[in-house]
Automatic annotation (TrEMBL):
Chain ranges of the Clathrin adaptor alpha/beta/gamma-adaptin appendage Ig-like subdomain domain: 612-719
Gene designation: AP2A2
Family named by the database record: Belongs to the adaptor complexes large subunit family.
Subcellular location(s) of the protein: Cell membrane; Membrane, Coated pit
Protein transport keyword on record: yes
SMART domains assigned to the protein according to its UniProt record, in alphabetical order: Alpha_adaptinC2 (SM00809)
Keywords attached to this entry: Cell membrane, Coated pit, Endocytosis, Membrane, Protein transport, Transport
Lineage top rank: taxon: Eukaryota
The protein, known as: Adaptor related protein complex 2 subunit alpha 2
GO CC terms: AP-2 adaptor complex
InterPro entries: Adaptor_Complx_Large_Subunit, AP2_complex_asu, ARM-like, ARM-type_fold, Clathrin/coatomer_adapt-like_N, Clathrin_a-adaptin_app_sub_C, Clathrin_a/b/g-adaptin_app_Ig, Clathrin_app_Ig-like_sf
Length: 838
């Protein structure tokens, strides 16, 4: 086996040597040999290949005497290596020269170079920003040329469609160009839209596919720039023609693109003109994916003027909708009904109709929300009580309707009790007739309604007590039902009228917070969907009709006038309008076990150094690059903490689908966030933290967003370390050394002798020890040059005492750090963290 391994190693080295000779040989510039070597490197595409040749291939690519075919192969080979090992491809002088390949006479070279530049520009936009004007110039020459001018690259009468698409995608990596290039680009896009109106030059499907590929990419660029009203409206009208096209794929793509157009203030009205066509597609389309896109577009184009029509059509479609999309439709109907309800009686009718049609798909978030709104609005409470009472009289009604009816009648049944048809006894009998058909949680809710009736309607107190006193309740096998029956019966028996009125008074208004229905829809659709994009834009630009999303955005976002403004906001008053999530819904909890964060980006360069600086401080800039700045302000007390994270957009362009995700296993994190960050603005995220038990690893903050059409991915360690949960403890010399001796077993002590990384300064050392979290104990150690400290780490499950002793050696410029705690893992972790500070 060892002999075979040796033979493989020798063969591998010979292969590398042979390829290296072909690539680097100045005596043989044979394009066949160089092409063979480059193809071999690209086909293997391993990290070893990148380490060996990533520095040489750019030289071949920009060399003046390189043949066109070799340049083409070199560009694609470098692209392959960059995708495999981006950290091994060095950015240098060649980057400014490779941009000029967009002007090359050979379109094959231009096509390969465009693919390379587009990929590189997504992570290094500033390095390749000069490519914008060159890409516009080349695109202009292509779209204005006749098909005979580019014979070798004309595909079924469409000149260079692949290169056109690649150039349009490259331009989506950047904001709109400067005025000199913008006019030319606008002309190009208008020409593409004009050509789409021309009669086809061929009946072959290849011709229409190539022509439409360029058209849809041009529309994507128009949507991305979102700055030319005329182009946006023209794009919308062009897509509207595709809505009735015989090709299913074109109809799907048209609906998908129009969803994004609906979020633009310039084209929203133009999209609305196609509402009847979209409704017809919802009713007649045979493909479920096209019907789903039609639902998405109706949701996106909805506003106050057409909300009732769209909601009615969605409810009609819901009765026959595919099971796979029913839950999503239910969520969208609930959101639209709440957002655009001018008359909240219509809202109540809509939600009850929703429960009637698709009760199995109405999640808890939906019926929680209708109860919150009814409780918060006095003008609709009587109507809601009357409507649910009538709905409950149906022979068969869904259990969710029983829940809503039980809750609303328990709070506001007195508002309809004056009508003999809905007297207190009739209300009680109606609800109790559903009792035996319901699940345990619903029965528990109904028992709470019954005790509320005792307070609202004393005349039926005896009837309710008889129910509570029955064996089926007092001896129920379910402990929750049994406990409620016993306690409610006792409460109704011994409590006076005044006490009952106080204990069972009407629920107070709920605090305004983000709709948990909207949060669930975003979680279901994912952070990078069109629906998410249009939702955030419309929330920002339109009146919310008193809905809670606007309140949330104002509470969690603070704009600054320029990128250079104070991103930390250290001089500003802290934001206090942060609302905790409702205890009844988990949809606002960050899912720390979610698959969406399974593959975060590797930690950003330099973030480890910044992380170490935060071990002994709580405020400052955690991360900064050319696009984004992340600042922190945090405070901790015992096992609880609160962290304010400030995200600053340093560019003049929006960040879209901005999605910060915390990856950890030991904290409880509550977060609410607006996924759009305006250019030159700052947004704030509040993270509440609870330390459950001692831990070793800090959580990772992964931020994903779209800038200039490209997905950006940044990961940094969040400085939540074990020492943050210290409470300093003062003690005298005798107590300190007595406790020190008690913690003398080898498992309890951790010691580290290390070289000082900074000059030994007494005041700085004291400040770092205090910043670490322990109390700095003066006059305790017999050697006055030594530093000692004491503290207790608080977790939810335990408290861990800690003693620290730091002995500096000025002559040797070294330290000896000794830590003793009752837990070995804690001693080790604290020793690691503190050693890095000196």
């Amino acid at each position: 086996k060892s002999k075979e391994a040796e033979i493989k190693r020798i063969n591998k080295e010979l292969g590398y040597l042979f390829i290296s000779v072909l690539v680097n040989s100045n005596t043989s510039r044979n394009p066949t040999f160089m092409g063979l070597a480059l193809h071999c490197i690209a086909n293997v595409g391993s990290r070893e290949m990148a380490e060996a040749f990533a520095g040489e291939i750019p030289k071949i690519l920009v060399a003046g005497d390189t043949m066109d075919s070799v340049k083409q192969s070199a560009a694609l080979c470098l692209l392959r290596l960059y995708r495999t090992s981006p950290d091994l491809v060095p950015m240098g002088d060649w980057t400014s020269r490779v941009v000029h390949l967009l002007n090359d006479q050979h379109l094959g070279v231009v096509t390969a170079a465009t693919s390379l530049i587009t990929t590189l520009a997504q992570k290094n936009p500033d390095e390749f920003k000069t490519s914008v004007s060159l890409a516009v110039s080349r695109l202009s020459r292509i779209v204005t040329s006749a098909s005979t001018d580019l014979q070798d690259y004309t595909y079924y009468f469409v000149p260079a469609p692949w290169l056109s698409v690649k150039l349009l995608r490259l331009l989506q990596c950047y904001p709109p160009p400067d005025p000199s290039a913008r006019g030319r680009l606008t002309e190009c896009l208008e020409t593409i839209l004009n050509k789409a109106q021309e009669p086809p030059k061929s009946k072959k499907v290849q011709h229409s596919n190539a022509k439409n590929a360029v058209l849809f990419e041009a529309i994507s660029l128009i949507i991305h720039h979102d700055s030319e009203p005329n182009l946006l409206v023209r794009a919308c009208n062009q897509l509207g023609q595709f809505l009735q096209h015989r090709e299913t794929n074109l109809r799907y793509l048209a609906l998908e693109s129009m969803c994004t157009l609906a979020s633009s203030e310039f084209s929203h009205e133009a999209v609305k003109t196609h509402i009847e066509t979209v409704i017809n597609a919802l009713k007649t389309e045979r493909d479920v994916s096209v019907r789903q896109r039609a639902v998405d577009l109706l949701y996106a184009m909805c506003d106050r003027s057409n909300a009732q029509q769209i909601v009615a059509e969605m409810l009609n479609y819901l009765e026959t909708a595919d099971y796979s999309i029913r839950e999503e439709i239910v969520l969208k109907v609930a959101i639209l009904a709440e957002k655009y309800a001018v008359d909240y009686t219509w809202y109540v009718d809509t939600i009850l109709n929703l429960i009637r049609i698709a009760g199995d798909y109405v999640s808890e978030e939906v019926w929680y929300r209708v109860i919150q709104i009814v409780i918060n609005r006095d003008d609709v409470q009587g109507y809601a009580a009357k409507t649910v009472f009538e709905a409950l009289q149906a022979p068969a009604c869904h259990e969710n309707l029983v829940k809503v009816g039980g809750y609303i009648l328990g709070e506001f049944g007195n508002l309809i009790a004056g009508d003999p048809r809905s007297s207190p006894l009739i209300q009680f009998n109606l609800l109790h007739s559903k009792f035996h058909l319901c699940s345990v949680p619903t029965r528990a809710l109904l028992l709470s309604t019954y005790i509320k009736f005792v307070n609202l309607f004393p005349e039926i107190k005896t009837t309710i007590q008889d129910v509570l006193r029955s064996d089926s309740q007092l001896k129920n096998a379910d402990v929750e039902l049994q406990q409620r029956a016993v306690e409610y019966l006792r409460l109704s028996t011994i409590a006076s009228t005044d006490i009952l009125a106080t204990v069972l008074e009407e629920m107070p208004p709920f605090p305004e917070r983000e709709s948990s229905i909207l949060a669930k829809l975003k979680k279901k659709k994912g952070p990078n969907t069109v629906t998410d994009l249009e939702e955030t834009k419309k929330e920002r630009n339109s009146d919310m009709n008193g809905s809670t999303e606007a309140t949330l955005v104002n509470a969690s976002t603070a704009s600054t006038p320029s990128p250079s403004a104070d991103l930390l906001g250290l001089g500003a008053a802290p934001v206090t309008n942060s609302f905790p999530p409702p205890s009844s819904s988990g949809s606002l909890l960050v899912d720390v076990f979610s698959d969406t964060s399974a593959n975060p980006a590797s930690l950003a360069p330099g973030s480890e150094d910044n992380f170490a600086r935060f071990v002994c401080k709580n405020n400052g800039v955690l991360f900064e690059n050319q696009l984004l700045q992340i600042g922190l302000k945090s405070e901790f007390r015992q096992n609880l903490g609160r962290m304010f994270i400030f995200y600053g957009n340093k560019t003049s362009t929006q960040f879209l689908n901005f999605s910060p995700t915390l990856i950890c296993h030991w904290t409880k994190v509550f977060t609410m966030f607006d996924p759009t960050v305006e250019g030159g603005a700052q947004v704030q995220q509040i993270v509440n933290i609870e330390c459950i038990s001692d831990f070793m690893e800090a959580p990772v903050l992964n931020i994903q967003f779209r800038y200039g059409g490209a997905l950006q991915n940044v990961s940094v360690k969040l400085p939540i370390t074990l020492n943050k949960f210290f409470q300093p403890t003062e003690m005298g010399s005798q107590d300190f050394f007595q406790r020190w001796k008690q913690l003398s077993s080898p498992q309890q002590e951790m010691q580290n002798i290390f070289k000082a990384n900074h000059p030994l300064d007494t005041e700085i050392t004291k400040a770092k020890i205090i910043g670490f979290g322990t109390a700095l104990l003066e006059d305790v150690d017999p050697n006055p040059a030594n530093f000692v400290g004491a503290g207790i780490i608080h977790t939810k499950s335990s408290q861990i005492g800690c003693l620290m002793r730091l002995e500096p050696n000025l002559q040797a410029q070294m330290y000896r750090l000794t830590l003793r705690t009752s837990k070995e893992t804690v001693s080790r972790r604290l020793c690691e963290l503190l050693s890095e500070q000196f």
